């Protein structure tokens, strides 16, 4: 398939605008950020979305949806003019809002009213959405905080490449770590580790750095380069060398 030239060199930014807003202090334990995306396309654009271990609450065209953690990339078609307002919950901190494990939301999109009930915020802006969230705050859950701190540790510590190492750092067993992630994160600790380590690969590619793929695969805990490339393609929708083309004419 011929590549859409709007994917290259940051050309998509001519038709999209992304805004990120920090939550108020009292909601920061649950919410990582608010985000707003607007777009205007004369021709439909197939937007690739790479997953992270967040649950998202989105508002668009009078509807509210909950997007559970995705195990792989997805594509969304953007056409004409439109916008969406999103709430990205801290990984691990959406569990207290649910009556079951976050793993039940994995790779699913559901009507948000099944969790929060009506009415929805109106208008959809930071003030009204924060009022809406405050009206539905759950009771404190120390296990959720533990899950959130564990994901933050994975994101920050590039030396964590295995679940065994993570479990030792957190003073628990591998089985205990897996149970914690199923209940509160919605996707396994091995996936989360690989996701954040592969994010570091995208940074190197964007910077145009030379990469010793065999050495990098070993550093990231992979048996070999093909296994790294397989996971990279599942997350980012294309092999690393193809992904790097996105930045070749962007000056980055």
TrEMBL record:
Record field: transmembrane: none
UniProt cross-references to SUPFAM superfamilies, sorted A to Z: Homeodomain-like (SSF46689)
InterPro entries per record: AraC_XylS_family_regulators (IPR050204), DUF6597 (IPR046532), Homeodomain-like_sf (IPR009057), HTH_AraC (IPR018060)
Entry-linked SMART domains: HTH_ARAC
One GO molecular-function entry: DNA-binding transcription factor activity
Residue stretches making up the HTH araC/xylS-type domain: 145-246
Keywords: DNA-binding, Transcription, Transcription regulation
Lineage top rank: taxon: Bacteria
The name this protein goes by in its record: AraC family transcriptional regulator
């Amino acid at each position: 398939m011929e590549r859409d030239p709007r994917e290259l060199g940051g050309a998509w930014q001519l038709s999209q605008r992304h805004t990120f807003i920090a939550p108020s202090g009292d909601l920061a334990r649950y919410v990582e950020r608010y985000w707003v995306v607007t777009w205007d396309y004369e021709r439909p654009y197939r937007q690739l979305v790479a997953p992270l271990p967040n649950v998202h609450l989105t508002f668009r065209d009078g509807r509210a949806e909950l997007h559970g953690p995705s195990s792989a990339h997805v594509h969304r078609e953007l056409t004409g003019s439109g916008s969406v307002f999103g709430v990205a919950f801290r990984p691990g901190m959406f569990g207290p809002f649910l009556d079951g494990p976050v793993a039940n939301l994995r790779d699913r999109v559901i009507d948000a009213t099944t969790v929060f009930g009506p009415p929805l915020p109106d208008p959809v802006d930071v003030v009204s959405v924060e009022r809406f969230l405050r009206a539905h705050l759950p009771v404190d859950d120390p296990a959720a905080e533990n899950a959130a701190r564990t994901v933050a540790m994975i994101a920050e510590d590039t030396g964590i490449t295995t679940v065994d190492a993570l479990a030792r750092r957190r003073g628990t067993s591998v089985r205990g770590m897996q149970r914690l992630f199923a209940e509160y994160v919605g996707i396994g600790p091995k996936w989360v580790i690989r996701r954040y380590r592969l994010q570091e690969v995208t940074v190197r590619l964007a910077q145009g750095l030379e990469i010793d793929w065999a050495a990098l695969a070993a550093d990231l805990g992979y048996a070999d380069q093909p296994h790294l490339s397989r996971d990279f393609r599942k997350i980012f929708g294309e092999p690393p060398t193809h992904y790097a083309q996105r930045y070749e004419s962007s000056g980055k």
